[in-house]
């Protein structure tokens, strides 16, 4: 087998040609070659698979990253390598700086109102921009992603924030401006002159009217929305719409007139005693200048309060024991003030809601035209109501030279039906005292007696309002029937007194009311 054997080959022309015989490979060598080929293929497959897995891992990391890629910036701020939250924090100063530049000043001729970014409802597209930047290199093959990342890193990705405004917030902000800028018109009015009648003949000071104004809210809102859409933050000057006052000083004086007045005298004894005058002066001063609005009720006791010495009231004569007697009490004399006021109220055609006559007829006013009040608030009161459509102004004072109490009530004029009211007192009848009454008391010894009160005739009076127009009587209206109590003679007697037993004039004593 060491030498090649000769072989015969037949040529195309049929001749035979001598040649050498081919050598065959050993089977084991073929096996080795096959094994090597298979091993090479396996190594190649392994290496290729490993690279693919590496690439797939890198691709997955790129897609899953929670940070912005290097080269990404927003408004010049490099956010590469930042988380979403870090990027938002990094952009906050930028947003603040832009917001500071946004401000529209509104001037209404009096005040300047600043509409800053917050009041304009500014909204930045930060989320939209960051979402876009965050979405870079999130889809594609390994090669596409790495090429995109290289391009981002090399050439960068630059974004700019934009902003818009909220119409609803602008409308609300303008509403606040309009509410603050709105000026309600103020009608001219009359103020009580505190110097009247002491040093001034004018009972009122006129408070001038003030015109109001308002802003055209819808018009201003539309203008601001337009400016914001154009990113024009220049100032705005608006002219308020004027609202004239309904009542001016030119016509108010005709609306408030002297509606009624009344006087009573304290010139006769015992009405001019010092303490009594003090109490009347104090009471009239507390009432003077009172303003009673339509529908309000005036309470004399409510104004004066409890008449006690600790409140500055002095002891003076007051009716007690149902009119049978009198005694000094703090505040004595104030009934002359309530009576004078009552007369002015009747002559002003005002509504009396609570009035009681005295138990005895008085010397300073005609029968049936008095109004009593008690010392302690809430028991007997003189009350009346403003039944007109305008305020009422009450003035009361004492003229101590003429010893006269004055009361004036100002308000709206009477209706066309009448222009003056006078008062009339009409005697109805007397009420004669009944038989003498005997009152037993342990303060007297046997046989002693004293006069508790003398007999006193009672009276009944009717009172009327007489309505006049141009000096002519147009109607008469009854006000009230007032009964002043009679009192029989009352005598104090000892406890053992037997009714009908004659009293010895020599045993008469003086006994004060306990």
Question: What is the topological layout?
Answer:
Layout: E1 6-10, E2 16-20, H1 27-64, E3 72-74, E4 77-78, H2 84-100, E5 103-107, E6 112-116, E7 123-124, H3 126-134, H4 142-155, E8 157-159, E9 163-164, H5 167-181, E10 189-192, E11 204-207, E12 212-214, H6 217-229, E13 236-237, E14 241-243, H7 249-252, E15 257-265, H8 274-287, E16 290-292, E17 297-299, H9 300-304, E18 315-320, E19 325-330, H10 334-347, E20 351-354, E21 383-385, E22 392-399, E23 404-411, E24 420-431, E25 437-440, E26 449-453, E27 458-469, E28 472-484, E29 490-493
Parallel strand pairs: 3-8, 5-13, 25-29
Antiparallel strand pairs: 1-2, 3-4, 5-6, 7-9, 10-11, 12-14, 15-23, 16-22, 17-21, 18-19, 20-21, 22-23, 24-27, 26-29, 27-28
Helix pairs in contact: 5-6
Number of helices: 10
Q: Which term fits the overall shape?
A: elongated
Distance between the termini: 176 Å
For the biggest sheet, the summary is: 4 strands, antiparallel
Mean pLDDT: 90
Physical arrangement of strands within the biggest beta sheet: 15-23-22-16
Class per helix and strand makeup? alpha+beta
